Amino acid sequence: MLFRLSDLKNGAKGIIQQFDDNDAKVKLMEMGCIPGEAVSVEAIAPFGDPIAIQVSGYRLSLRKNEAMHIWVEVG
Question: Which one of 28, 38, 39, 51 has the lowest number of neighbouring Cβ atoms within 10 Å?
């Protein structure tokens, strides 16, 4: 099933599948968020923004409005 990265809970893991915004796509791919790459949610700030993810071998902090453009296959 596909979910937005921004909707995943702390500790969730998945595989990046696609993006739904071409402008955000370029920026996110430059940061290592590439389709086919494994991603896991490492931490979520108390009010839900930002979120820390593990991707491409490092920890990355994303705003929720950036993470909502990343579609992840979970399970």
Answer: 38
Compute the distance between CA of residue 48 and CA of residue 17 in angstroms, rounded to an integer. 23
The yes or no reply on domain 2-73 and CATH 3.40.50.300 is no
Contacts of 36 (CB under 8 A, 6+ apart): 15, 16
Rounded-to-10 torsion of CA 50, 7, 4, 72:
90
pLDDT in tens, 25-64: 999 999 999 999 999 999 999 998 999 999 989 999 999 9
